[in-house]
Amino acid sequence: MNKLTYIVTAFEALSSNKMRSALTMLGVIIGVASVILLVSMAEGAKQYILEKFAGLGTNLIIIQPGKVQTKGGNFPVAGIASTHKLTLSDVRAIERQATYVDGVFPMILGALIVKYHDAHADTTVVGVNEQFTRIISMMPSIGGFMTREESDAGRNVCVLGYNIWKALFADQNPLGRIVKLGNFYFRVIGVMEKKGQAVGFDWDDLVYVPAKSAEKIFNTDSLFGIRAKAISKNVINEAVAQITQILKRQHNNNEDFTVVTQESMLSTVDTIMNMMTVVLGGIAAISLLVGGIGIMNIMLVSIKERTREIGLRKAVGANKRDILIQFLIESATLSTTGGIIGMLIGIGGGFIMQSMISGFHISITPWAILLSFFFSAFVGIFFGVYPAYKAAQLDPIESLRYE
Amino acid sequence: MIEMEKVWKVYRMDSVEVTALKDINLRIDSGEYISIIGPSGSGKSTLMNIIGCLDKPSDGKYMLNDKNISDYSDKELAHIRNKQIGFVFQMFNLLPRYNAIKNVSIPLLYAGIEDREIETRAKEALVKVGLSDRMYHRPSQLSGGQQQRIAIARAIVNNPDIILADEPTGNLDTKSGREIISIFKNLNEQMKVTIILITHDPFIAQQANRVIKILDGSIVQET
Predict the structure, then answer these.
(1) Which residues does chain A have with pLDDT short of 70?
(2) First-to-last CA distance in chain A?
(3) What are the residues of chain A with a beta carbon less than 8 Å away from any beta carbon of chain B?
(4) Higher model confidence: residue A3 or residue B24?
(5) Which residue in chain B is spatially nearest to A321 when comparing CA positions?
(6) What are the backbone angles phi and psi of residue A206, rounded to the nearest 5°?
(7) Which of A152, A160, A174 is nearest to A123 (CA)?
(8) B154 contact residues in A (CB cutoff 8 A)
(9) Phi/psi at B217 (5° precision)
């Protein structure tokens, strides 16, 4: 028998019992579809998070007050083990001394209500300096950002996030207007470009002021953190070492702060998300396995029913190998056909879910598709071997007599 | 072409030994038309299975076309069944999902014949048994006699030397039975195919050139 004939024979046998074949395939269809869907969801979530982090700027170094022993480099919870705080003098020290650092800005954060005449909006005020836009690669779409002079002097100027501008001024030009932040009046000098949501907050809900002004608003000199940018990717570790050294000197040789790179944070996120992908994929793969057992079950039934056919085929010249291959191809056809249908459902379902649920991201990965497809083919062959072997071993004389 | 020397067949069922064939000596020449008769359990089916290379003798020598096939492997026996022997069964043993052509084609699939040639040869075989107008029918759409003719077409499609028919008329009415027998006769006379036919029916047995009677595993009479 040539290869094509085997496949044609398998299709004829399977299509003679369509309902049964369809139900048998259903197990594999559900298995493959759920592997693809779940892995795509997990991958989508991972890429979404990584993208949002990457949007914070490249070669970013994160300096937080407090020392927390973590290997991967998570955000230390501010104040948990800190006796000292980070201040603007630390920022100036880094700026002056760190040669591997291309830029640095402080961050002072606080929630406030921003008012303009009768309009008001809840906002988070962020005290930064003039280097913020360059490091984070974000530009004002209207007006400009604060200057070095305004930052150093702590002038009462502010740059509005996109949503804040809309809330306070509708579409009107806000430049030169005075808004009230807490008990202070600030002149609007710009509006940031629309950036959207990031991890846990919305860029467009922020109001940017010079850090020195923020110190006044919140009556504090301790920073939420410092962000720095290494001059290139290659020297990012050197930059971290330099910053650590400088800050230690500043803090009387106490390492009461944490310096991590964005990259190490991302790799932690990456590790966690990959684990999630594997777990989800694994759970779905179990259903694929169950589908394989369904195939084996139905193949055993089918061989029992077709005992006489097997006997006849052997009587007219089929040898064991012919029978083995015939039934193996039948089970492989069941599983791969199921695999292809499951693949289409998984991919299609992913796109439908993405288009119907806002904020739902999927990323259909070729490896998930290939893996689940080949796994389904493997399942069909693996679970087909035993029934096919049984069929091949049947005695033709007894098989022909089988009622 | 068929020579059996002191052929025995002993089955072991649990601990009991059942002797199906005892010391069979038999010679069948090419082109003969032979009937084998005997009551049920006499061993005639066992004899046919051995002649047809579905089974091997427990003891003795079986020469088919001057070759001792007693020690052939399963694969080699399958090859012999495919090329040299055609089976016709009482129950027809057609595949219900296949039409006549596809049923007749089955032996050719295992003979390594090209796809294009398979259909041509299957159709030729169906013409020989007088089913040229039923080629695309499935077994369920045909009468018993017609189904058995498909089975005969399947048996001759690979041009075998021998046709082994086990009670081929057992499931048919008298008229259809006679038609089937006349097809065998034609095949024997015109194509010189050796026919070995097992039957209960003395009338059908008499049509053959030679009748072999089996009782309790032994040949008791040859006429």
Answers:
(1) 1, 54-57, 68-83, 198-200, 359
(2) 28
(3) 1-2, 4-5, 9, 12-13, 16, 308-309, 311-322, 396-397, 400
(4) B24
(5) B75
(6) -95, 160
(7) A160
(8) 316
(9) 85, 5
Q: How many whole angstroms separate alpha carbon A50 and alpha carbon A38?
A: 18
Contact across the interface for B78 and A314, Cβ inside 8 Å: yes
ipTM value for the complex: 0.94
Q: What's the domain range around B108?
A: 2-222
**Surface of B (108-137) touching A: CB under 8 A:** 109-112, 115
B141 touches chain A (CB under 8 A): no
Q: Which of B36, B12, B14, B39 is nearest to B24 (CA)?
A: B36
The nearest CA of chain A is from the CA of B110 a distance in Å of 5
Q: Where are the domains of chain A?
A: 3-52+270-401, 84-255
Query: Which tens digits make up the pLDDT trace of B174-216?
Result: 999 999 999 999 999 998 999 999 988 888 898 899 999 999 9
Look up the CATH number of the domain holding residue B21. Answer: 3.40.50.300
Q: Does A317 contact B107 at a Cβ distance shorter than 8 Å? A: yes
Question: A349, A33 in Cβ contact below 8 A?
Answer: yes
Percent of chain B at pLDDT exceeding 70: 100
A23-59 tens-digit pLDDT: 999 999 998 898 888 888 888 888 887 777 766 667 8
Asked if B11 reaches chain A (Cβ–Cβ under 8 Å), the answer is: no
Contact call for B115 and A2, based on CB within 8 A: yes
Who among A1, A319, A397 is closest to B54 (CB)?
A: A397
Q: Note the Cα B93 to chain centre separation in Å.
A: 13
The rounded distance, in Å, linking the Cα atoms of B193 and B155 is: 11
Q: Please give the DSSP secondary-structure letter assigned to residue B106.
A: H
- How many Å apart are CA B34 and CA B50, to the nearest integer? 16
Query: Among partner residues B89, B93, B110, which is closest to A318 by beta-carbon distance?
Result: B110
Supply the pLDDT for residue B1.
86
Q: Which residues contact A249 (CB under 8 A, 6 or more apart)?
A: A93
Residues 6 or more apart whose CB falls under 8 angstroms from that of B150 comprise B92, B94, B100, B103, B104, B126, B129, B131, B139, B142
Q: Tell me how far the alpha carbon of residue A191 is from its chain's centroid.
A: 30
CA A116 to chain centre: 39
Pairing of strands B218-222, B210-215: antiparallel
d(CA B91, CA B150): 12
B215 and A CB contact within 8 Å: no
Which residues from B are below 8 Å from A10, CB to CB?
A: none
Residue A195: per-residue pLDDT: 82
More confident residue, A56 or B118: B118
